[in-house]
Amino acid sequence: MINVKDNLNKVKAQIQQACQQSGRLTPLAELSKQSSPVSLLAVSKTKPTSLVEQAYLAGQHDFGENYLQEAVEKIAELANLPEIVWHFIGPIQSNKTKQIASNFSWVHSVDREKIALRLNQHLTDDNCHDTPLNICLQVNISNEESKSGISIEQVFSLAKIVDSCDKLTLRGLMAVPEKNAPKACYEQMQQLFTQLKKQYPSVDTLSLGMSNDLDNAVAHGSTMVRIGTAIFGARENKI
């Protein structure tokens, strides 16, 4: 039996420890109940709404989904939870942008001008949305052919396009480094994030780090880690 509340507490403790070890949260700050500089995004893909609701009732309000059809059904079922925030973190097909724009508050995986413009246009056409969509640009920091994302060289040109869209808010960067990625990958993401923050006041998010690289990501400036299995248990395989 999965105890979601206990698992959440363990993950949060791990995040706090990583912050302390990297000097991002001093013991004095912890004693004064200072909030963690790193937030937790609970990755709920393939998980039933019952587990998501357990996490919500335990105080977790931000959830990440990769599969659109599954996510839309889940979002509808949990519409009664007033403070829940949905993040789309999977690859984006251009014909899915309307549903993504309509259902999510955050999109972490924008990697093409076409996607940004389509998201913005859907929100412009839909008068029901009066709050901008929060956008992170996905960077393929390890240059893996199997992964989505832009190159380092493309970051600032795409950032300019997103920033020009009146229905989008540029919040930062997201990356999924390869397994056992060298320290240089994390250093590059940290440098990119720092540069982007200097240029755009709205940028405050570096979505970097999962269960296997949480400590390394936190040490290199991550502000949001994406954790699934450690909270909800092993994932079911998608067919």
TrEMBL record:
<keyword id="KW-0663">Pyridoxal phosphate</keyword>
<feature type="modified residue" description="N6-(pyridoxal phosphate)lysine">
    <location>
        <position position="45"/>
    </location>
</feature>
<protein>
    <recommendedName>
        <fullName>Pyridoxal phosphate homeostasis protein</fullName>
    </recommendedName>
</protein>
<dbReference type="Pfam" id="PF01168">
    <property type="entry name" value="Ala_racemase_N"/>
</dbReference>
<dbReference type="InterPro" id="IPR011078">
    <property type="entry name" value="PyrdxlP_homeostasis"/>
</dbReference>
<comment type="function">
    <text>Pyridoxal 5'-phosphate (PLP)-binding protein, which is involved in PLP homeostasis.</text>
</comment>
<dbReference type="GO" id="GO:0030170">
    <property type="term" value="F:pyridoxal phosphate binding"/>
</dbReference>
<dbReference type="InterPro" id="IPR001608">
    <property type="entry name" value="Ala_racemase_N"/>
</dbReference>
<feature type="domain" description="Alanine racemase N-terminal">
    <location>
        <begin position="30"/>
        <end position="235"/>
    </location>
</feature>
<dbReference type="InterPro" id="IPR029066">
    <property type="entry name" value="PLP-binding_barrel"/>
</dbReference>
<comment type="similarity">
    <text>Belongs to the pyridoxal phosphate-binding protein YggS/PROSC family.</text>
</comment>
